[in-house]
Design goal:
Elements (H helix, E strand, L loop, with lengths): L2 H7 L2 E5 L4 H12 L3 E8 L5 H14 L3 E5 L6 H4 L5 H19 L4 E3 L13 H7 L5 H4 L4 H10 L25 H16 L6 E5 L2 E5 L5 H6 L1 H8 L5 E4 L8
Parallel strand pairs: 1-2, 1-4, 2-3, 6-7
Antiparallel strand pairs: 5-6
Helix pairs in contact: 2-3, 2-8, 5-6
């Protein structure tokens, strides 16, 4: 099946839109192929502010309006407790909110940006999507991450090379309660690192410290800027560690 065939069979769809490479290309493809596509962005405490700004910007570039929904993710005790299947409970809340609104708006087919490269065995949230009958056209059509980046570039999408960005909750080790304060400290730390010129990094919670993971090409920069990093992250964490095993951005 091709995307053209998918949207011929499903000409009216609601898209769970994150503003990442996958969902952006899917939004562009649906719109370009003449489908009636409605985009929904579910805002929660797990996302930094820039993610919503980026999503609205790329949707404007495509020419599709986005309905922003609020998902009170930490009100769900199973999510806040942060078990190893946290993503399952999170998807139930986020897409539960999205599906309910999309159905109220008259949508019959709900889609998301899961692609053919995604390992569903490593994604507990995929089970939640299946339970809610959310379809993944990119995966159904066999489009991999590299395919989507290439096609996005050809389509002139501004975020075709945007690095994968996992939610803030992934910075907190399983079993540790996720609180608004902890998420704000992580977000503040990562904003500070962006401001210092770093990219493709993570600031993970390690006890009461922040453990930084940076790509190998930025390791020397991190060491050279040690004092600047300590000063920038000081308001958020009393101790900052550097993981010497370089991170490989996706």
């Amino acid at each position: 099946m091709t995307l053209e065939e998918f949207f011929k069979e499903n000409s009216s769809v609601a898209l769970g839109f994150s503003g990442g490479v996958d969902s952006s290309y899917l939004l562009w493809a649906a719109h370009s192929l003449g489908a009636d596509v409605r985009a929904y962005f579910a805002k929660s405490a797990f996302q930094p502010t820039f993610e919503m700004q980026d999503a609205l910007s790329v949707a404007k570039h495509i020419g599709v309006e986005v309905k922003v929904l609020n998902a009170d993710i930490l009100a769900n005790g199973e999510v806040a407790a942060n078990p190893e299947n946290r993503c399952y409970h999170c998807k139930k809340v986020v897409f539960g909110t999205l599906v309910a609104q999309a159905r109220a708006d008259g949508a019959k087919v709900i889609i998301d940006g899961t692609n053919a490269s995604d390992d569903l065995g490593d994604r507990p949230g995929a089970a939640a999507l299946a339970e809610m009958s959310v379809r993944s056209p990119l995966r159904e059509c066999g489009l991999t991450k590299s395919d989507i980046r290439r096609l996005s570039r050809e389509a002139g999408l501004p975020n075709w090379d945007k690095p994968a960005y996992s939610c803030l909750a992934t910075r907190v080790p399983f079993g540790r309660e996720i609180t608004p304060d902890l998420l704000q400290r992580v977000e503040g730390s990562e904003e500070a690192l962006f401001a210092l010129g770093f990219y493709g990094f993570r600031a993970r919670v390690h006890g009461e410290a922040a453990k930084l993971q940076v790509p190998v090409e930025q390791m020397k920069k991190a060491l050279d800027m040690r004092e600047d990093i300590l000063k920038a992250l000081g308001p958020f964490f009393g101790q900052v560690l550097l993981d010497l095993e370089a991170r490989r951005p996706q």
